[in-house]
Amino acid sequence: MSTRYLVIDGHSVIFAWPDLRKLHDQNRAAARKALTDRLQHLHDTSDWRVTVVLDGKLGTAISSGERKPTDMVVSYATADQTADSVIERLVGASGVAKDILVITADEAEKLTVESLGAATASPSWLRKELEMEGTSFTDELERIHRSARWK
Q1: pTM (two decimals)
Q2: H/E segment holding residue 71
């Protein structure tokens, strides 16, 4: 199976999901961390390679140390960029746009990345994907646990 890349406009998702939007209103860094924690699970338990792009100043560092090629990427746009421009540049320069799915609620961003060859989906699609992946992961753990029981 070929690698699939999931590129996520982080704030687009945060503002689309009521629980994260409410958290963001109280604590921006906590909302970013909550989103990346959820996406880390998807990255680690599926064949999606996840990149999250966020607008704004770098809040709390999400990860430290050297990054491995298989790690989830969390990127912040610089002061002279937007997450949208970072995503567009990433898709355009990737050479694998056909294997990229961009998650955004921004219609203009959808049109731009689709014109570059990537596919798009909504934040609600991402929520469903996370729920399905969580269910299949739990089912697999239960299957392994059942098969490992002493008889």
Answers
A1: 0.81
A2: none
Q: Which residues contact 98 (CB under 8 A, 6 or more apart)?
A: 117, 118
Name the phi and psi angles at 37, rounded to 5: -65, -45
- 114 token code pair: 């689709």
The phi, psi pair for 120, rounded to 5°, reads: -130, 155
Helix and strand totals (H; E) in the chain: 6, 5
Return the H-helix or E-strand segment holding 7: strand 4-9
Residue with tokens 């809040």: 59
Task: Inform me whether the pLDDT recorded for 66 exceeds 70.
Answer: no
Q: What is the pLDDT of residues 78-134, one digit of tens each?
A: 888 899 999 999 999 999 999 999 999 999 999 999 999 999 999 999 999 888 876
Task: Please enumerate in sequence order all residues whose Cβ is within 8 A of that of 27, keeping only pairs 6 or more positions apart, or say none.
Answer: none
CA distance 67 to 11: 23
